[in-house]
């Protein structure tokens, strides 16, 4: 199965440990030297009906990804997610 980075943006991330739906992939972090994907970034949830922006982004390490399907990505991670302290901006 071949998958481009642009195709990852259309995939939904679901935690199989808790059944929690994180959302869709917004960004991919990869190591420039080795060319390997390090983690996926999923935008955080909306705050108060979207009036106050979003919460912190979910950063899912590549080691937690169990299966990449046609339309979803299954991860296995505990209740604590690595939340990124900085916001990713689109340029």
Task: Give a quick precis of the structure.
The chain has one domain (5-81): SH3 type barrels, CATH 2.30.30.
Gross CATH architecture: Roll
Morphology call: globular
Q: How many structural units, i.e. domains?
A: 1
What is the CATH superfamily classification?
PRC-barrel domain
The termini sit apart by 30 Å
Task: Please tally the β strands and state the result.
Answer: 8
**Class by helix and strand content?**
mainly beta
Helical segment tally?
A: 1
Instruction: Determine the CATH topology.
Output: SH3 type barrels
Content of β-strand? 35-45%
Structural notes for this entry:
This protein has one helix at 5-8; strands spanning 12-15, 21-24, 27-30, 37-42, 58-61, 65-68, 72-75, 82-83. The protein is 4% helix and 35% strand. The chain is built from 1 helix and 8 strands. The chain starts with a helix and ends in an 8-residue tail after the last strand. The radius of gyration is 13 Å and the shape is globular. The strands form 2 sheets. The protein has a 4-stranded mixed sheet, with no helix packed on it. The chain has a 4-stranded antiparallel sheet with strand order 3-4-5-8, with no helix packed on it. The protein is mainly β and 91 residues long. It has a single domain (5-81), classed as SH3 type barrels (Roll). Mean pLDDT is 80; it is low at 84-91.
């Amino acid at each position: 199965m071949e998958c481009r980075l642009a195709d990852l943006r259309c995939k939904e991330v679901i935690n199989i440990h808790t059944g929690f739906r994180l959302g869709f992939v917004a960004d991919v972090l990869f190591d420039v030297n080795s060319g390997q994907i390090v983690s996926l970034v999923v935008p955080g949830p909306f705050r108060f009906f979207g009036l106050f922006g979003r919460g912190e982004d979910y950063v899912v390490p590549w080691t937690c990804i169990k299966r990449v399907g046609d339309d979803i990505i299954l991860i296995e991670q505990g209740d604590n997610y690595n939340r990124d302290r900085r916001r990713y901006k689109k340029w």
